[in-house]
Amino acid sequence: MSSEMLTMTEEEILDQIKNEVDGNRVFLYMKGTPEAPMCGFSNQVVQILNHIGAEYGARDILPDPRIRQVLSSWSDWPTIPQLFVDGKLVGGCDIVTEMFQAEELQPLLGSEAS
Amino acid sequence: MADLAEITKLIEDALPGATVEVVDQGGGDHLAATVIAPQFADASRLEQHRMVYSAVQARLDGGEIHALALKTRAPEDV
Fold first, then answer.
1. What are the structural domains, with CATH classification, of chain B?
2. Which among B37, B60, B33 has a CA at the least distance from the CA of B47?
3. Contact B71/A94, CB-based, under 8 Å?
4. pLDDT tens, residue by residue, B45-64
5. In chain A, domain spans
6. Any chain A CB within 8 A of the CB of B58?
7. Residue-wise DSSP of B22-45
8. CA distance A27 to A83
């Protein structure tokens, strides 16, 4: 996957990001994978999503530094992780945590599944 | 290393009337900011965070700040 990514143009990376965000109701860009997060902030969002029992797709941005650059300029959000729901950016670790604590995240993630 | 007073001023200048508190969470480049600003009144959390991030964008890009944890709200919520 990582070697394949490195041959992609930035335009192709952007197309892939749009496909991922449009094709998955809940999608997370993170450092590492849900099984092995490489950053405390990414880990925290994974823990929250797992706690809620949300189904989500995830992409590790570390294999190619261009993924993060293309993603951040497209989403207008400077940091990783970035959580998307229904094609829209919800936010990063702080916002996801705050929404979880305010019990706003649970209905957002569960509204279609339930 | 980030200068906490300078970071505070950058945010205050970008959001006149805001109450800003910036603390070091460790190492001098992992910061946390609490920002209460009148400009947040009709803004979503996402927009509120964007306003603060854009005020300190250069410091994030330059690496003086590695991480900035944010708590934001409008004054009415106090």
1. 4-77 (3.30.300.90)
2. B37
3. yes
4. 999 999 999 999 889 888 88
5. 2-110
6. no
7. EEE-STTTEEEEEEE-GGGTT--H
8. 6
Q: For A73-112, how does the pLDDT look when each residue is reduced to its tens digit (9 = 90+)?
A: 999 998 899 999 999 999 999 999 999 999 999 999 985 4
CATH number of this structure's domain A2-110: 3.40.30.10
Taking chain B, what is the end-to-end CA distance rounded to the nearest angstrom?
Answer: 32
**Pair A49, A26: CB distance under 8 Å:** yes
| Closest residue, chain B, to A40 (C-alpha) | B67
B contacts of A93 (beta carbons < 8 Å): 69
For chain A, give the mean pLDDT: 92
Q: What is the pLDDT of residues A35-65, one digit of tens each?
A: 999 999 999 999 999 999 999 999 999 999 9
